[in-house]
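Structure in, sequence out. Go:
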C-alpha cells in the first residue's frame, strides 16, 4: 500500500488553506460552505467534494454543549474546537467567532489564537457580547463605529497571515435594511474581505443588498425555517452572492436521522432490521483512514517487536 504520512494525517499548511479559500472567493463563481460541528462532519464535507467548511457557532453550542445560540460559549472553547477540526481535515475552515468575545483587544487576541489554531477565515458580527442567533428576535447592536474599529483591529492582528475576515451585520432586524447596507459599506471600508448581511426577509431585499454592495464578496446564510428565502446556489449566484452558507443543514439532518434511529431501537429493541439505514462498517473505517493508519503502524513497527 505504501501509504504516505500526509495521506493519512491531514497536514496541509494553514497558509495553503487560506490561499485556497481566497482563490474560491476570487474565482467569480459562487460556492457552498457547509456547516460542521465536529470532526466526523468535516470528514463528510471533505468526502463530498466541497472546497471549504464552516464551523457554525449555533451548531457548536447545540451539538457540543447542549446550549442555545445565545452567546454562552467562551473564546477558549471555540479556539480549542477549531484546533480539533483543523487537525482532522485539509479543507479551509471558516470560523464563526461571534462578536470576537469583547472589544478590540479581545478581537485581536481571538484572531491571533484562531490563526494559530488553523482557521482560514474568521467571521465577526456587530451584536453586543451576549449575542443571539441572527434568526432570533430582540438583537442588540454595538455602534457601527465600534464595529469598524473591531474590524480594523482584526486586520492589524492577522498581519501577513492572509486570514480572510468576514464582517456580519444584524442591523436588518433592528434598524432596517438601509442601515444594514450602510454598516456593510463601513465594514468593507474598515478592511473586511467578505460582507454578511444577516437575515434579509425577501428575494428583493437580497437583490438590493447585492446591487448596493456590488464588487464586494457577499455571504448569504440559508437557514431552513428561518427568515431568509431558501434559495439555491444557482439562484444566489445569479443575484450576486459569492458564499452560500448552509450552516446547520448537516447537523439538523444528522439529528433527524438520529431521532428516527433511536425511536426504532426503543420500539424494536434491535438494529439489524434497520441496517440499510446505517453507514456501512467498511465506509466508516474508510472515512477515518483505518487502513492507512494500520499500514503506517506496520511500517514503523515491523521487525522491532521483542528487540
Amino acid at each position: 500500500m505504501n501509504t504516505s504520512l500526509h495521506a493519512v494525517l491531514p497536514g496541509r499548511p494553514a497558509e495553503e488553506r487560506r490561499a485556497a479559500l481566497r482563490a474560491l472567493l476570487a474565482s467569480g463563481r459562487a460556492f457552498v460552505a457547509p456547516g460542521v460541528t465536529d470532526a466526523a462532519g468535516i470528514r463528510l464535507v471533505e468526502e463530498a467534494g466541497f472546497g471549504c467548511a464552516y464551523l457554525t457557532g449555533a451548531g457548536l453550542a447545540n451539538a457540543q454543549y447542549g446550549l442555545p445560540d445565545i452567546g454562552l460559549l467562551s473564546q477558549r472553547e471555540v479556539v480549542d474546537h477549531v484546533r480539533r477540526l483543523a487537525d482532522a481535515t485539509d479543507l479551509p475552515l471558516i470560523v464563526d467567532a461571534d462578536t470576537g468575545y469583547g472589544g478590540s483587544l479581545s478581537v485581536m487576541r481571538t484572531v491571533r489564537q484562531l490563526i494559530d489554531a488553523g482557521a482560514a477565515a474568521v467571521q465577526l458580527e456587530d451584536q453586543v457580547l451576549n449575542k443571539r442567533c441572527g434568526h432570533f428576535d430582540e438583537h442588540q447592536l454595538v455602534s457601527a463605529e465600534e464595529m469598524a474599529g473591531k474590524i480594523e483591529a482584526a486586520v492589524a492582528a492577522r498581519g501577513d497571515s492572509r486570514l480572510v475576515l468576514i464582517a456580519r451585520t444584524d442591523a436588518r432586524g433592528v434598524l432596517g435594511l438601509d442601515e444594514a447596507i450602510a454598516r456593510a459599506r463601513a465594514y468593507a471600508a474598515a478592511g473586511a474581505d467578505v460582507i454578511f448581511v444577516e437575515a434579509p426577509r425577501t428575494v428583493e431585499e437580497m437583490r438590493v443588498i447585492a446591487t448596493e454592495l456590488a464588487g464586494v464578496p457577499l455571504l448569504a446564510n440559508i437557514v431552513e425555517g428561518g427568515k431568509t428565502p431558501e434559495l439555491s446556489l444557482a439562484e444566489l449566484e445569479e443575484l450576486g452572492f459569492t458564499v452560500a452558507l448552509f450552516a446547520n443543514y448537516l447537523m439538523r439532518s444528522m439529528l433527524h436521522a438520529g431521532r428516527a434511529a433511536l425511536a426504532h431501537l426503543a420500539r424494536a429493541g434491535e438494529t439489524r432490521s434497520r441496517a440499510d439505514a446505517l453507514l456501512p462498517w467498511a465506509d466508516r473505517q474508510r472515512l477515518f483512514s483505518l487502513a492507512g493508519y494500520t499500514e503506517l503502524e506496520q511500517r514503523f513497527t515491523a521487525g522491532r517487536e521483542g528487540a
